[in-house]
Amino acid sequence: MLNFNFYNPTHVVFGKDRLSEIATLIPENAKVLIIYGGGSIKKFGTFDKIVKALESFEIFEFGGIEPNPQLQTCIKAAEYIKENNIDFILAVGGGSVLDATKYISIAAKYYGNDYKSLIKHGFTPVPVTEAVPFGTVLTLPATGSEMNAFSVISDETGKYAVYSPLFFPKFSFLDPTLTYTLPKKQVANGIVDTFIHVVEQYITFPVDAKFQDRAAEGILQTLVEIGDYTLNNPEDYDARANFMWCATMALNGVVGSGVPQDWSTHMIGHEFTAKFDIDHGRTLAMVLPSLLRERKENKKAKLLQYAERVWGITEGNADERIEAAIQQTENFFNSLGVPTKISDYSVKKEELKDIITQLESHGMVALSETGDLTLDVAERILENAY
User: Fold this and answer.
1) Is residue 130 domain-shared with residue 266, that is, in the same domain?
2) Do residues 78 and 107 share a domain?
3) Mean pLDDT, to the nearest integer, of 85-102?
4) For the chain, what percentages of helix, strand and coil (3-state, to nearest 5) are there?
5) pTM of the full predicted structure?
6) Domain containing 304: what range?
7) Are residues 296 and 355 in the same domain?
8) What one-character-per-residue DSSP string does 191-232 give?
């Protein structure tokens, strides 16, 4: 097992009918800014419940956060916080709203003239020392942003991963009933996103991290077990609760501590979202199978473990078992209505070179857990994914 530090200070409040407890976790006399996306929280009554819970606070609101949060929108929110001396932020929504809030929390304490510089550090911590404290109410399980220190922000040049220890929410409310009204497509995307979050930390190379492996396999098996069911039975509380907790645990540091991590699928997928506006989870589904086939020798031991422990595949030679596991993965995504080929989208084959150009311009030239997924390898992955 590799050396690691584990730190996660987020207070999780899980379960139904608990929004009334929000006021107990926000400092007294705070000015609270509620940040949200397209307005579904008002349509389905969540906003009113939160306002009622915060009736003793001075409340402000900022809506319109995009599905892939845009830098300029985040800057507007940060300036609004400065103008109104906001003390606390409450993010209500899915991963995009939470990601935006993380950036906004540090931008609101930034008094330089180059907001864009705050998104140019990748997985190196943003060099800031202050942030407006924030909590979250999660309405769409997928990104794990409710219990981690990562964010993804977009501008006209692409999507950027942003990291800071200040990005851990003070608290996160996870109420599965708030997900009942989600469109099927968003739920399917969230299941796939969660699944691949785990895969990127699990299908690498062995380091004898037995607990992390078993935890990862448990999440993957749970998603396979409940995926189609929760998609078609959105008000089954237990199924939706299990999905929600899987999404949180997939990326809060537990399964990724002490093990090598890949993230190539995410980095490549981000470029498809930036150029073609394809949903994040769907970009991952169309890249991962081809990537696993291309990298099967590098990932052989873990792919065989994945085949046996997640899919119960024990017969055939190594190559046959690996291929069967990849096919099962594709079948799972397709069963959720998530296509697994680039050609299933409005992408021309000649445009694949644009993705390679974008990877190069963003410095993504040595991806994978071993740093040897070069641009020529990425190009083969895309060609075979088409």
Assistant:
1) no
2) yes
3) 97
4) 50, 10, 35
5) 0.95
6) 184-385
7) yes
8) HHHHHHHHHHHHSS-----HHHHHHHHHHHHHHHHHHHHHHH
